Amino acid sequence: QVQLVESGGGLAQPGGSLRLSCAASGFTFRSYVMSWYRQGPGKERELVAGITQVGGSTRYADSVKGRFTISRDNAKNTVYLQMNSLKPDDTAVYYCNAKGGYLLRNNYWGQGTQVTVSS
Could you tell me the sign of the dihedral formed by the alpha carbons of 34, 39, 44, 49, in that order? Predict the structure, then answer.
């Protein structure tokens, strides 16, 4: 069955860094657009970053541009989110998302990993 398993979340100080990983299985990873979303306390879920199937194109939310980097390793079926210069506003549950298949109708989610930025 399809699985997206996030890891790497935790507590970081403002200005610090964390690297999230999402290990995928149960579908053809290299054919899917991969993204990271987040949902902060009392907020709606929002797109943080996305990367195309072969990694040729990425997109970022304005709030994370220049601080976060999304990448993928199709040989390892894994997508990453490197988060630098973390701010308290980055505190959220971060979710891995996979979108693909015919007309991009397949839409898979991980269970989420908590990121807390606090001194």
Answer: negative
Confidence tier at 102 by pLDDT (50, 70, 90): confident
Q: Number of H helices and number of E strands within the chain? A: 0, 11
Number of Cβ within a 10 Å radius of residue 119: 8
Residue corresponding to tokens 């994370």: 64
pLDDT at 8 over 90: yes
**How far apart, in Å, are the Cα atoms of 41 and each of 24, 27, 93, 94?**
26, 31, 9, 12
- Residue 55's pLDDT band (cuts 50, 70, 90): confident
Gyration radius from the chain CA atoms: 14
